[in-house]
Amino acid sequence: MPPPTSIVERYETADSWLADCSEHPHLVRALWETDDLAPIASGNHWLVAESRLSNGMPAAARIRQEHRGPVLADPEADRTWWLVPPTAAEELADVRQVTVQPTGWSLRCPPCGWSVAGRWWLWRPDGSGRLTDPAVLAAAFGPGGSYRPTEETAV
Question: Among 51, 87, 88, 151, which is least packed by CB within 10 angstroms?
Fold first, then answer.
């Protein structure tokens, strides 16, 4: 199957992949149709590496385009969520500016084509399943930092 060519096709491909990462893709799509965030549990397809947006944006700028996986941002909550491989927790354990959420943790996602509740995809999924390599993410954050955020503290 050839890669999508139009922006609409790219968003549809990305949304399909993201929804299919859920145990209930039809519920994800239904929430998006009503302009709601859809909770998608991590684990089977990816884990979530969470950071403050104020730390994540400089790290993001250090990652070359060919190494970028999906990153969700919420400026109001000062958060970024990086989709990383399910095996990334150990490799990111020493990166103090990043917290890898456990399997089963739900990330509340907008669709790929627009912002919902202030959340938007800094780098959208492309539908291929490409994720951010944990070694690349660790190098982008570099040493240091002490804040270990969780979405629950963002309130």
Answer: 87
The set of residues, in sequence order, having a beta carbon less than 8 Å from that of 20 and lying 6+ positions away, is none
Could you tell me if 59 and 123 are in contact, meaning their C-beta atoms sit under 8 angstroms apart? Answer: no
* Cα–Cα distance, 113 to 27 (Å, whole number): 18
Q: Is-above-0.85 flag for pTM?
A: yes
C-alpha span between 108 and 118 (Å, rounded): 11
d(CA 83, CA 121): 11
Summarize pLDDT for 45-88 with one digit per residue, the tens: 999 999 999 999 999 999 999 999 999 999 999 999 999 999 99
Cα–Cα distances (Å) from 144 to 75, 94, 97, 119, in that order, read: 22, 9, 7, 27
What whole-number distance in Å separates Cα of residue 80 and Cα of residue 151?
Answer: 10
Selection from 26-30, 94-98, 142-146 with the highest mean pLDDT:
26-30
